[in-house]
Amino acid sequence: MKKVLGIFGLLVFICVATALMSDRFLTEFNIENLIRRSALFGILSIGAAFVIITSGIDLSIGSVVCLVGCLLPWMLVEHGFSVPVALLIIAGISLTIGLTHGLLITKVKLQPFVVTLCGLLFYRGLTRGIVQDQTQGFKGGFKTLRELSQGEVGLPFSDFGIPNPCIILLVVTALAIVFLNFTVYGRYMLALGRNETAARFSGINTDRMIILAYVICGMLSGLGGMLFVLDVGSAQPVDFGNFYELYAIAGAVLGGCSLRGGEGTILGVVIGAAVMQVLKNTITLVDAIPTNIEYAVIGAVILGGVVVDELVKRYAARRRAAQQAKMDG
Question: Which residue in 135, 172, 271, 288 has the fewest CB atoms around it within 10 Å?
Fold first, then answer.
């Protein structure tokens, strides 16, 4: 809870500072757009969090977003697939990607970094080959489907509405919290991340838990890719989803997920994803900050999260050792 309060305090501080430095921050258009983008990246960060909790990593999230984002309009517009069939295919592709990653890591014993790095290259290359490097879009059609990402739920006695991606994020967040904290599989994942060997000796099927984590990440990456392309209306296979995995990982790390595994809160991850988007918005709106340092900020955030995690681990270890020595004495 302390980590959640800490990251929430950071979010409030950045919002207040940005509002003081730019009068465009609190405009209705900017706030609505910021909420929408935070929700979309929040979904990706939750997927990344499940993998990180099991001591893994997924570098292919952005390429999965690209694959799904290009294939959905490609199937609907270029090849006349019905919406249910296209969505079913997208879900099947996302599940298969996550399952393949999990099997390669658990059964073939490959490193998660290597598997998902290859995925990062393969899925984008596959997308470019399928669509022949052509931009894919809905060409003004499928308005009902696009309401999933572009629509909003109006609030009573207010002109302001909650973007639909935010509603979807709330559902995903609630399900993720229940799964991680109130089911036996969630506890197994946390135990696995803390000590895989001990978890295996205690009877936990660690391979199954790792596969499940990558399947969840793959499914949420696919959901995110679908919502992203529905939001913007088109996707260019060369750069659609570029570096989205970095935003997802940064949001998870900033939200309290330890890259060592075994730690993480879903609420913290959602807030961490929002912090990343507010930082990006700050860089865009504040004239005194160069717009070309965006990726430097992401790198600094990830490095800072890792450094803080290491320092906290060392402090906790010294404190336990001191308490044990006091008891023994």
Answer: 288
